[in-house]
User: What shape does this take?
Amino acid sequence: MVMGQYNTLLYYCYSTIEDGEQFAADHLKFCKSLNLTGRIIVASEGLNGTVSGAAEACKTYMDTVHADPRFASIDFKIDEVDVPSFVKMHVRYKEEIVHSGLRDPNIINPQLKTGVHLEPKEFLEMKDEEDVVILDVRSNYEHNLGRFKNAITLDIENFRDFPDKINELAQYKDKKVITYCTGGIKCEKASALLLHEGFKDVYQLHGGIIKYGKEAGGEDFEGKCYVFDNRLAVEVNSVNPVAISTCYNCGKVTEKMINCANPECNEHFTQCDECGTAMEGCCSDDCKAHPRKRVYDGTGYYVKVPQPVNMKEKVTLALSRPKIG
Assistant: This one.
């Protein structure tokens, strides 16, 4: 049941969409008709979205999406929020619903083969077994803010770097490997790639960290979970919470995640309130002095600012393109 004045929905679905570009355009109109805000990625392989709005509008959205046979199995993660978690509504067509660079369906196809899905309570029971390895497949800024106790983390800036790290994981080929991420979407491809590379016993946390927090109390998840909306970070563990992240500037323990106020940097990092005030929401003195620095309001969340177009470079590129006909 949908509760509260506003909801934020997190979801994904790997399901073939024949005319993705047209679907994206139509879906944007539908979302706007419900006064939803959020960010949805559409690809021929499926949907990946976070949307937010009035509870009734979110219910209508879920009911309508579920009525489409392609998306009937979507597992919506629902959060009650005080205000919508986005400012605008974007629906964009891309090559993948999560950028991995793994586009050959003959090698990686989550609709055909992935790791065994573990429900949160199954994960809770299995995670501490001696022959189990818990693998975080998220980016540095995400697992620096919060991660499962004893999890293996990778030094990656984006998920597309994950395939290059497979060799570092070879020592775990004889273990039971459980992958996890925020909502489960990255694990679909990560676990599929591990199987393709010869890992035999591969599992994934179904619904990710968010579902685990809701259904299993978030036990042994240390810190907060980074989310891709204006909340930036959410609580997960109601059983044995502990803070693990520290301020990028002074080293003080803090769980506050922000984006650098310099839009040309926009680094994701943790910063305590004292340093946030002193640094005006910037990660460095150079960013603090940058002429395009945004006004820091204490949240560290900013609506994306378009980068200035280099017209000279744009004209040069246009002239260099081969003519047709």
Remarks:
- The first helix runs from residue 20 to 33.
- The radius of gyration is 21 Å.
- Confidence is low (pLDDT under 50) at residues 306-325.
